[in-house]
Amino acid sequence: MFCATSLETVDISCDAVFQPEMCGDVQEYGSPTYLRRNEAEKCSIHSTCFVPVFSKDQTSTPVSVVELTWHEKNVAFENMLRRLHSALQEVNLQMCDVDVLAMQTGLKKLSLGDSPSKAEGTS
Fold it and tell me: Looking at residue 55, what DSSP letter applies?
């Protein structure tokens, strides 16, 4: 996860991530929308994909959310999602079916006044 030198706890509201979510360039958003924007810029992270993880017997509420990141812009994550799906099945976890081509890109929690821009704080 980024260039972290220690384990971090990130507060993610599960109700915000019940469906997979993908973004082609998180650096276009300000910190209020993507809280780790500064770290993403520092580590040259652009693409991200959030995937809710469910237990086999509890599919209404995620038990976790996995964030996949990549240095290039507009990554589709198809191969990584297939590998994640297989790995989760091995430990009796699952994710919802993901149609990468139909998945809407962008961050759902775009705040008012937080329009995508290359430089944070510029208009």
Answer: E
CB 3 within 8 A of CB 84: no
CA–CA separation, 32 and 36 (whole Å): 9
The token duo for 74 is: 């507009």
User: Is 29 inside a domain boundary?
Assistant: yes
Averaged pLDDT for residues 95-99? 77
Instruction: Decide: 68 and 48 in contact? Cβ < 8 Å.
Output: yes
Tell me, yes or no, whether 35 lies in a domain. yes
Question: Which structural domain range is residue 50 located in?
Answer: 14-94
DSSP-derived letter for residue 102 is: T
Type of residue found at 86: S
Domain assignment of residue 104, yes or no: no
What is the domain-level CATH number for residue 26? 3.30.450
Identify the bridge partners of residue 21 per DSSP, sorted by sequence position. 50
How sure is the predictor about 89, in pLDDT bands with cuts at 50, 70 and 90? very high
**Residue 106 domain-assigned?**
no
pTM reported for the whole predicted model: 0.67
Strands 64-70 and 47-55: antiparallel
How many domains, the chain? 1
